[in-house]
Specification:
By secondary structure, this protein is α/β, with parallel strands linked by helices. Helix content is 39%, strand content 25%. It contains four helices and five strands; from the N terminus they run βαβαβαββα. A five-stranded mixed β-sheet has the order 1-3-2-4-5. Belongs to the thioredoxin family.
């Protein structure tokens, strides 16, 4: 796993994600989830590609149930893109790098506007 991807839990979610000065892509995942493991290398790549413009964080739903419940995580992987403490985009299920890049670019593009 990339050292640019951070693990966030119930205790530090607000500080790490909602109060972040840059947008944060949050991956809600679990150890037993096959599709979660499939997209993990893509998230590592995105963390490298968007370094300085976007943070990538992972929340283990089994260990951090309060955060998962708060954001209505019903199926995983579920990706939420936060900017200024607000959800800008949602992606449920494993998708390719191209689709995630489009989602991120759209959200970051609105940052410049």
């Amino acid at each position: 796993m990339s050292d640019k991807v951070t693990h966030v839990g119930d205790a530090d979610f607000d500080a790490a994600v909602l109060q972040s000065g840059e947008p944060v892509l949050v991956d809600f995942w679990a150890e037993w989830c096959g599709p979660c493991k499939m997209i993990s290398p893509v998230l590592d790549e995105l963390a490298e590609t968007y370094g300085g413009k976007l943070k990538v964080a992972k929340v283990n739903v089994d260990e951090n149930r309060a955060t998962a419940i708060k954001y209505h995580v019903r199926s995983i992987p579920m990706l939420l893109l936060f900017k200024d403490g607000q959800i800008q985009a949602t992606q449920i299920g494993a998708v390719g790098k191209g689709q995630l890049t489009q989602m991120i670019d759209k959200a970051l593009g609105s940052q410049a506007a």
